[in-house]
């Protein structure tokens, strides 16, 4: 969800929560009303861009609606299975549960973004504006942090298995405490966005929900993008890459005894699942953060192609919130069995 600096000269770009990170043109992503900054998927363009981007206005609500329906159904199913099935109460599944909660919250409020997209203004008031912006940022940061913790956990499990050691402190209760600490950390990180989020009215008397930065707006705008890029991508992804590199190195260079040879089958499956979930996350989110770098270092014109790419990048990051349940169902036998058993109990 990001915001846009406003430039008195012109008004372009769309108004949706995740956008300023995706915009590839810092100068042209501004509107003409003072010193407010607003999210990237706003539906107000100048007249030329309105004609060029008309198809996007029709297609995007459909795409967002599909993501909302699939994501809400899938993540709710994941939450239900983990909470209800006794065999699903594992350390890894505790982190998966919190990851599903973050995605579920985002898909739950996505209809409000769709409504804003269609109405082309913000009719829902300042409180809901702060809620929507904060949930979107919660989704950005919490997803990568829970994946980072899952990667740390996998590294420790693999290391302990290779060395034939037990992990007495790796318990479901400990995972709950770690999860709570992550939510507290993410709340602290998101707090600046909550403070700056509000509803403003531009020169055309159109209400928008976004981030209202103090002067100098351009400095705060760039700072917010760098802040998100470093804390929401660079640091956690670097940590994950280092962990998996060390994990592969130890597996290749340490002699495994008969009990730890090639890891236990179940542990190996969980490790592969976490790796694939992480890979899908990076596939969906890396373009989003690369677009931030482009926006900070270049000045591309707002052509229909640039706008289309921006919308595609935003939609791809949204789509990640509905993909994980399919990965769990495809990769985790215990999840499929628990889900079927719960369905049988409800239908019998």
UniProtKB/TrEMBL annotation:
Question: What are the recorded GO MF terms, alphabetically?
Answer: neuropeptide binding; neuropeptide receptor activity
In the bilayer, the protein is annotated as: Multi-pass membrane protein
Pfam families registered for this protein in UniProt: 7tm_1 (PF00001)
Q: Where is this region: Disordered?
A: 1-29
Which regions are flagged for Polar residues bias? 12-29
Q: Which residues fall in a compositionally biased region of kind Basic and acidic residues?
A: 1-10
What's the chief localization of this chain?
A: membrane
Keyword annotations for this protein, in alphabetical order, are:
Cell membrane, Disulfide bond, G-protein coupled receptor, Glycoprotein, Membrane, Neuropeptide, Receptor, Transducer, Transmembrane, Transmembrane helix
In this chain the G-protein coupled receptors family 1 profile domain maps to 74-328
Q: Which residues form a coiled coil?
A: none
Q: Where in the cell is it found?
A: Cell membrane
Family statement drawn from the similarity comment of this UniProt entry: Belongs to the G-protein coupled receptor 1 family.
Q: What is this protein called?
A: Neuropeptides B/W receptor type 2
Q: Which organism is it from?
A: Lonchura striata (white-rumped munia)
Q: Which gene encodes it?
A: NPBWR2
